[in-house]
Amino acid sequence: MKKFACRDIGMECNFVAQDNDERKLMEKIAKHARDAHGIQKIDSALEAKVRAAIKEA
Q: Could you tell me whether strands 2-5 and 16-19 are parallel, antiparallel, or unpaired per DSSP bridges?
């Protein structure tokens, strides 16, 4: 199981997502970024930061 938390990239946000599939996890993160943070597109720099913060749960 892979896990991502917004706090791990310095956001003041309690969002945590988990999934066995990293692609599905990234989709959950992208949806949250749009809905909660107004980020319409995750650019390559943010994607790299997010992927580096994904941990095994």
A: antiparallel
- Note the pLDDT tens digit of each residue in 25-55: 999 999 999 999 999 999 999 999 999 999 9
Tokens at residue 23, please?
Answer: 């692609």
CB 16 within 8 A of CB 4: yes
Contacts 24+ apart (CB under 8 A), 40-49: 49/9
Question: How far, in Å, CA of 55 to CA of 18, rounded?
Answer: 9
What predicted TM-score, i.e. pTM, was given to this entire model? 0.93
Number of H helices, E strands in the chain: 2, 3
Domain ranges of the chain: 2-56
